[in-house]
Amino acid sequence: MLLRVNGRIYTRIDCIGRGGSSKVYRVSAESGKMLALKRVSLELADEQTVKGFKGEIDLLKKLEGVDRVIQLIDSELNVEKRTLSVLLELGELDLHTLLKSRQSTPDGAKLDPVFIRFYWKEMLECVRSVHAMDVVHSDLKPANFVLVQGRLKLIDFGIANAIQTEMTVNVHRETQVGTPNYMSPESLMDSNQYAFTSSHSGRPGAPPPHQRGNAPHKVTKLGKPSDVWSLGCILYQMVYGIPPFGKIATQMARCQAIINWAYAIDFPEMTDDGTRVPPSIIRSMRRCLNRAQSERPTCEEMLAATDPFLYPHEFVPAVINSGEGKVLPMTEDLLSRIIQSVAQRCRERLPTEGEAMLGFRPQHYCAAFEQGLIDVRGTFDRQPHLISVRDEWQQIGFLNHCELLSPLSPRSSTPRELGFQTSYYSYNTKEA
Predict the structure, then answer these.
(1) Residues identified as active-site
(2) 322 partner at 20 to 30 Å CA-CA among 155, 213, 373, 409?
(3) According to the lineage, what is the superkingdom (predicted)?
């Protein structure tokens, strides 16, 4: 079936999503490039709904060129047919599907700090990029992060808002919209009520009349901290398998718990299967899930090299001095960090399905070390399991030799065709 957008023809492959009055199709351009086409029926849409769709397109245009946002290719409003077509960069797999797939397998359901650390950093990079453009997404959830060539990107800016002026740090909204499991307290409360409750250490109550303002409707104020709260909810779900308020039966009760300062969020030190949760992960969750938005960290702060979760001290092994210079012992933890760095820096090769679903777990590589399948001495003519800190080309050779990027793919080429040379890789002891 052929679909048209502004006169250009696209071949419909299949339907990859639907919701409300819209459907999303995987389509092929005349060049053969795969794209996503969102087709929205406006037959029953009111003026506010149409305005929302147009607002999403305007925001995508504002975010054009932002690397961590799904790119807008084209759009068309057909007045006669009452349809809106939005042509977008195609995401290969969303985070919700990835998490659900992992939880359905015995190994994937177990807490994997390496997997969590990688995707947590990816999410932070995505949100930091839109915050840098003074855009608040307002509906962050796993389904709105998609993998494109091995990297996460943000989608669905239908209820996002741009902060209008340099003097303002919030967007104002007269309706409460979002996904309850990931919505912040301030997104569920009138701005005056939230300000009063927050300033009184969470004690509920209404502000005095002189603080209520003259607005005829309840108005919520949402800023960048609201997105940080949502990120904390996703991190919580990655750790414990369920969002922080997910066990509460009804949506109304869930919302009431979110805005109730007295309702303490539980951060178990052990998962249901008895796996210990690293304290640095709990610290990150607590910081994000602080009901006082002024006390939540920014994405920039959480991405800092001093963050104990992203850059834990146990991943910084002591530097060993040898006759040939400084070297690092190759441990499982260090190897995990290297794999993450490679995954982030090698942009030219599409990830295999196995790599995406595996989450770059290091066990397979470490097993190869233990079984003596990888001859590091033969590669570098050094002590086994030691690599140079300074010589980045030797690091590339090491990764090349170990075939770290494609351990599961039966259709992969030889390691030397995977683009290490062009995807210049480097790391230092602080990142290790």
Answers:
(1) 139
(2) 373
(3) Eukaryota
